[in-house]
Every structure is written in structure tokens, then in C-alpha cells.
Amino acid sequence: MEKIDWKNLGFNYIKTPYRYLAEYKDGEWSKGTLTEDNVLHIHEGSTALHYGQQCFEGLKAYRCEDDSINLFRPYENAKRLNRSAERLRMPLVPEEMFVEAVKEVVKANEGFVPPHDSGATLYIRPLLIGVGPNIGVSPAPEYVFTVFCMPVGPYFKGGLTATNFIVSEFDRAAPMGTGAVKVGGNYAASLQPGKEAQERNYSDCVYLDPATHTKIEEVGSANFFGITADNQFVTPVSPSILPSITKYSLLYLAEKRLGMTAVEGDVYLDQLDQFTEAGACGTAAVISPIGGLETGNGFHVFYSETEVGPVTTRLYNELVGIQFGDVEAPEGWIEKI
Ligand SMILES: *Cc1c(COP(=O)(O)O)cnc(C)c1O
């Protein structure tokens, strides 16, 4: 194995030796197997290629101090994959099959799970795609479920820092479209606004609710949260937001561990003054503090353009501590490999 510089990993594709592959034909899943082939051979008529009939997940494996390996709430990813599959008329992947596939892949690539103190993790990507001969707009005759993984660095190499974001004029999803499921189509729609934001030196863009463009919905490919002066942890609620497992974990931790009031409600763009801190959260982003937000109507600074607020810091330490096995986890949150 090539020596990996754990401290300088980014979020890039790295080939690890093994991936899991199962095929769905004639109404049933084949027994999944591990393979070393990282190229998919699929039919040119596959619906995943033409009509975006595909969905995915993202989760991480964490190396603990005692060298054991943690998965963080993988059954939540299994459930969400199936909600995505249902929305796009794809077959469900049994939850046990999903979690077993993830565990097998992590075990088989164990040498690529970064050391505890590196801050790096093993990123795991489950993927479900429609394949087989098809040209009309209808669900595919067959499906492939695959799980692959690679080591990735911490989102912030120099520790937690705040960065700036900009509100996009584009929508990533329609009001009753596919915003609430993890499908590639939402990401295709986000590439242009995301690039435009980065070209203007913002970390990413913030999407407003597609029906009225008055409320905050998503932060790039992460969920938004705000902290109020009276100790509330607030996240937006909408049928076009992707329900982040990290977000629901933070809602729980804010209430049970930090004694805050956890609120899911509307976050109006013209009421940002209520927040003393704000951030983005997700598996990849972990917790990314939002320094300032260009709203199109002015630049709003939350806690500080560079410094991280005290509540965000406490939430980050609690969440990451649980994931890496340094802080006691709520019942059922950790699956050992
Ligand atoms: C995956 C994803 C998130 C984060 O969800 P987690 O379960 O916390 O990783 C947020 N927004 C979008 C659009 C996503 O696809």
C-alpha cells in the first residue's frame, strides 16, 4: 500500500482496493460481492444516464482511540436511500443489506481508515442506479447498488474557521420536486450556482425556498442552522430541503446535551438579525460556521467573519466527539465495524 499523508487529504477520489456490488434483476437482488474493479460496465440505454434515475448516500467511518471503527447512524442513511429510491421508482435496498454492504467495504479497506488523531475519516459512497436497455421515460428494467470508499481530510484543515456564503438566484429543486431526496439531478442543478459562488470567492451558495424566495433552505449541499441570543437552535423546515442526518443529530444534541431549545421553523432572509451564530451542517461539511452572508440586499455578518462562536464550537465538539468515540453517544447512534 502506498503511504498516505493523512494530515493533507482533501475531498478527492482515491482508489481503494475493494467495493461492493449487487444487481437487481427479475424482481430480486443478487447476492452482493466485493470486487476490485472500479469501473461500472452498464448498458447505453440505462435510465441513470438519460433520465437521472439514480440516488446516493454519503457517510463516514471514524477511527477511535482504541483503534476500533465507528459508523455514525448508518441505518438512517439506509432509510433515506430507500425514500430516494421510492421517489424515483427504484427497488428498495433492504436496510440490513445496506448496512452489511457498508461494513464489508470498510472492513475490506480497513488500512485506508485514517488514524484517530489525524482528523481524517473514511468517506463511504453508496450508489443506486437504473441500468439496462431502455429509451422511453420509464423506470429501468434492472438496477445496480454499489458502495465504495476513500479516505478524506477534515473539511477545515486548520481547525474550525468561519467562511462567507452568497444567496443564489437559482433554485436547486422545485417546491414539490425532488429536493427532499438525495438524487443526482439536484446536484446537476447546483453545479452552475456553486461555481459562480466560488468564482466570487464565497465558499458556496445558499438556496432560498423555491416557492417564495424569502426563506433560507440549504447551504450548498449542507443544511442551515442558526443560534439565537435566547439559546434556540433553529433549522429551516420545508418539503424541498434534504433532511440531513447531521442536522437531526444536532437538533437532538442542542436540546439534550446543551440545554437549548431546538426549533424547526421558517428562517426568513429579512430576519437574520435574530441569529448570533449560524452554520452549515452535513456529513462532508460536518459543521461549517457561516461568517458572513451576501444576501443580494447587503452583507450580513453573524458571529464574526473569521471567528467561530461559542455555541457552534460546543456543538462541533459534541458531534465530532461522539463520531470518533471520545464522547458518549446517544443510544443506537454508533455501529461498530
Ligand atoms: C447529503 C446532503 C446533506 C447532508 O446530509 P447528511 O445526512 O447530514 O450528510 C444536506 N443537503 C444536501 C442537498 C445533501 O445532499
From TrEMBL:
<dbReference type="InterPro" id="IPR033939">
    <property type="entry name" value="BCAT_family"/>
</dbReference>
<dbReference type="GO" id="GO:0004084">
    <property type="term" value="F:branched-chain-amino-acid transaminase activity"/>
</dbReference>
<keyword id="KW-0808">Transferase</keyword>
<dbReference type="InterPro" id="IPR036038">
    <property type="entry name" value="Aminotransferase-like"/>
</dbReference>
<dbReference type="InterPro" id="IPR043132">
    <property type="entry name" value="BCAT-like_C"/>
</dbReference>
<dbReference type="InterPro" id="IPR018300">
    <property type="entry name" value="Aminotrans_IV_CS"/>
</dbReference>
<dbReference type="GO" id="GO:0009082">
    <property type="term" value="P:branched-chain amino acid biosynthetic process"/>
</dbReference>
<dbReference type="InterPro" id="IPR043131">
    <property type="entry name" value="BCAT-like_N"/>
</dbReference>
<dbReference type="InterPro" id="IPR005786">
    <property type="entry name" value="B_amino_transII"/>
</dbReference>
<keyword id="KW-0100">Branched-chain amino acid biosynthesis</keyword>
<dbReference type="Pfam" id="PF01063">
    <property type="entry name" value="Aminotran_4"/>
</dbReference>
<dbReference type="GO" id="GO:0008652">
    <property type="term" value="P:amino acid biosynthetic process"/>
</dbReference>
<dbReference type="InterPro" id="IPR001544">
    <property type="entry name" value="Aminotrans_IV"/>
</dbReference>
<comment type="pathway">
    <text>Amino-acid biosynthesis; L-valine biosynthesis; L-valine from pyruvate: step 4/4.</text>
</comment>
<feature type="modified residue" description="N6-(pyridoxal phosphate)lysine">
    <location>
        <position position="182"/>
    </location>
</feature>
<keyword id="KW-0028">Amino-acid biosynthesis</keyword>
<comment type="pathway">
    <text>Amino-acid biosynthesis; L-isoleucine biosynthesis; L-isoleucine from 2-oxobutanoate: step 4/4.</text>
</comment>
<keyword id="KW-0663">Pyridoxal phosphate</keyword>
<protein>
    <recommendedName>
        <fullName>Branched-chain-amino-acid aminotransferase</fullName>
        <ecNumber>2.6.1.42</ecNumber>
    </recommendedName>
</protein>
<keyword id="KW-0032">Aminotransferase</keyword>
<comment type="similarity">
    <text>Belongs to the class-IV pyridoxal-phosphate-dependent aminotransferase family.</text>
</comment>
